[in-house]
């Protein structure tokens, strides 16, 4: 159920990213930034024009000032021709969403399968406090080590060995501490 939902959301996001929109997301545009002028507030104008037509007279429509102030107003405006590759942006977003979706599916898979793989074995005992001095089976091969044929079992075996080593190191450190005190 969760996997289907993830794929549906991913599909919708890809469709939104790839769909052709006639908004201001074209690959080329002329952007004019005009500061406040007399009683007018500043404004940003965008228009799809060629690079040679990227100036205030072709981009700023409708002209907010009367005919005699147009030249003074346009001298204050800063116009820049911008090019960008929306296709590259869309492909990057699709790749990113695909990777995130795959990781979410993998996480859901692990959350479902991990409890089935991990069984509570009777030979695993909780770690003892620092005062406990005896490990019941320090060198006896465990059942998981005898049948360590999967990666998860090998990792669990290494984890158990590491826990035993840490417990022995704690015991040694606290014994030395008591001896020095």
N-to-C terminal Cα separation, in Å? 61 Å
Mean pLDDT: 78
CA-atom Rg in angstroms: 34 Å
Counting copies of identical and different chains, the oligomeric state is single chain
Helix/sheet category: mainly alpha
Shape: elongated
Strand order of the largest sheet: 2-1-3
Task: Report the major sheet.
Answer: 3 strands, antiparallel
- Helical region count? 6
Order of helices and strands: HEEHHEHHH
Model regions low in confidence, pLDDT < 50 over at least 5 residues:
121-138, 144-148
What do these coordinates show?
- This protein has helices spanning 2-18, 56-59, 70-76, 86-117, 143-146, 151-180; strands at residues 28-34, 43-47, 78-83.
- By secondary structure, it is mainly α.
- The chain has a three-stranded antiparallel beta sheet, with helices on one face.
- Strand 1 and strand 2 (43-47) form a beta hairpin.
- Helix 1 (2-18) packs antiparallel against helix 4.
- The longest helix is centred in the middle third of the chain and has 32 residues, at 86-117.
- It starts with a helix and ends with a helix.
Provide the fold topology.
Elements: H1 2-18, E1 28-34, E2 43-47, H2 56-59, H3 70-76, E3 78-83, H4 86-117, H5 143-146, H6 151-180
Antiparallel strand pairs: 1-2, 1-3
Helix pairs in contact: 1-4
């Amino acid at each position: 159920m969760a996997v289907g939902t993830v794929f549906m959301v991913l599909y919708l996001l890809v469709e939104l990213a790839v769909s052709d929109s006639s908004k201001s997301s074209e690959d080329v545009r002329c952007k004019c930034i005009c500061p406040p002028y007399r009683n007018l507030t500043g404004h940003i104008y965008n228009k799809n024009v060629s690079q040679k037509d990227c100036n205030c007279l072709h981009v700023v429509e409708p002209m907010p000032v009367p005919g005699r102030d147009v030249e003074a107003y346009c001298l204050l405006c800063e116009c820049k021709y911008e090019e960008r590759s929306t296709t590259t942006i869309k492909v990057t977003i699709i790749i990113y969403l695909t990777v995130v979706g795959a990781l979410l599916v993998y996480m859901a898979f692990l959350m479902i399968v991990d409890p089935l793989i991990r069984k509570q074995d009777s030979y695993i005992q909780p770690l003892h406090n620092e005062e406990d001095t005896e490990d019941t089976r320090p060198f006896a091969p465990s059942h998981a080590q005898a049948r360590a044929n999967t990666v998860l079992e090998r990792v669990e075996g290494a984890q158990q060995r590491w826990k035993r080593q840490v417990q022995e190191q704690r015991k040694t450190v606290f014994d030395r501490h008591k001896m020095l005190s």
